[in-house]
Amino acid sequence: SAYRLCIMRKLPSVLTRTLASGTNASPGLPDMFEVRSRLRDIVGASTNWRDHVQAMQERRALHTLLAKQQEDLPPRRMKDSYLEVILPLGSQPEIREKYLNVHNSVRFGRILEDLDSLGVLICYTHTKQEMQQKSPLSIVTALVDKINLCQKIIYPDRDIKFTGNVSWVGKTSMEVKMHMLQLHDGDYRPVLDATFVMVARDPENKRPAFVNPLVPESPEEEEIFRQGELNKLKRIEFSTSSLLKMAPTAEERNIVHDIFLNTLDERQEGEGTVSFRSRKLPPSSVWMEDAKLKGLEICHPEERNIFNRIFGGFLMRKAFELGWALACSYGGSRPFIVSVDDIMFQKPVEVGSLLLLSGQVCYTEKNYIQIRVHTEVYNANTKEHHTTNIFHFTFMSEKEVPQVVPKTYGGKYL
To answer: What does UniProt give as GO cellular component (predicted)?
Structure first.
């Protein structure tokens, strides 16, 4: 994997529409509990696991509300989907325990869960039809394009505010930009900037469905929309440049060859010969095959989403926590998350699945650690494994870390 050390970009100016709802922490703003409650109402999701089959059968009747073509749907503006949500950690201490880690800061895995829920609600806000109480769309997370952080510590006793809106729309997909800010001395200051890609599907989550087009209203919005289009083209280009489809470039081959030469052991039994099988670990280094960590999760109904699949935010939290544990053990000190990118949701995870997580340190530089987490479901009946997600996390350790060195061809291109 190429090294990803992301820099926080300047946040776009805040669009001027808020929700009218209630929380003691900030009048007029909903909290994350209300976000999830609204999602259940929009979809008509059951609150009891045993009733989910009936709830999904009721959703089938919503097929008639789907648009036959995108042109049948009214265009929307960016501010139409703009939401602000409060996480009242400062003003409501009773909710802190869920978000607290052992270092007395906020668990980033919980923030990932909140971002995922908010992103879905933003998209439902963009596609809402005034005369429809329930949405015929099943909106799910397809990709976390990037999350950049500009603050090492997220404090557990200060209110947090999330803002976001749809920033780009295709035929059946939507890009969502979200920002997280935390209260400091009476002002909300930026903590992170996130870009998610959501896809719309039919009521049974089987086929793509059209979404409302997006119309920029200002030069700034036109630039945001143009960037969304560029992001889409980059994703397409990235998918076609896979090593399974395209040979490494000349520059990549040279890098791999240099790594290989640095691991050859020239102290051979026969003079003047060097065996490719005889390898040595460079000083202050760790073989990539020794920088791994694995985990297992049983996917219980408690972690289901509004479509009775395992919640994508839960998967992100578990992958992040495995990645954090690997960065901690590899670097020998507390790691801080710097960026998250290229989280691909390839296959939904069913309730009852056995979820296998595999973390791998794939690049290091000074005190930065790049970690890839691969998740797959295991079917105990068929003995089959299927990839569900791939995650990329960049951590910053408190001290310089050993260089990770690949031993195999595959490891060199991770």
So the answer is: mitochondrion
Asked, colleague to colleague, whether 27-241 and 246-266+275-413 share their fold, the answer is yes
3-state SS, residue 281: coil
Q: Report the interhelical angle of 312-331 vs 108-127 (nearest 10°).
A: 150
- 13, pLDDT greater than 60: no
The DSSP secondary-structure symbol of 19 reads -
For the domain made up of 27-241, give the CATH fold.
Thiol Ester Dehydrase; Chain A (3.10.129)
Tens of pLDDT, residue by residue over 19-50, are 333 334 455 689 999 999 999 889 887 667 66
Query: What's the token pair of residue 244?
Result: 């399974």
Q: Which residues, 6+ apart, have CB-to-CB distance to 384 below 8 Å? A: 378
Which CATH architecture describes the domain 246-266+275-413? Roll (3.10)
The pair of structure tokens assigned to 262 is 């640095």
Q: Angle between the 108-127 and 32-43 helix axes, to the nearest 10 degrees?
A: 40
- pTM listed for this prediction: 0.84
* Cα 253 from Cα 247, distance rounded (Å): 9
Task: Say how many Å lie between the first and final Cα of the chain, rounded.
Answer: 4
- Express each pLDDT in 293-319 by its tens digit: 999 999 998 898 888 889 999 999 999
For 409, phi and psi rounded to 5 degrees?
A: -60, -45
Inter-residue contact 147 to 339 (CB < 8 Å):
yes
Q: What proportions of the chain, in percent to the nearest 5, are helix, strand and coil?
A: 30, 30, 40
Please state, in angstroms and as integers, the Cα–Cα distance from residue 244 to each residue in 185, 247, 371, 386, following that order: 52, 8, 21, 18
pLDDT at 59: 81
Q: Going edge to edge, which strands form the sheet with 368-379?
A: 83-87, 160-169, 173-184, 187-201, 138-149, 335-345, 384-397, 368-379, 354-365, 292-298
Question: How far, in Å, CA of 363 to CA of 110, rounded?
Answer: 26
Domain ranges for the chain, please list them. 27-241, 246-266+275-413
The pLDDT tens digits of the residues spanning 122-139 come to: 999 999 988 888 999 999
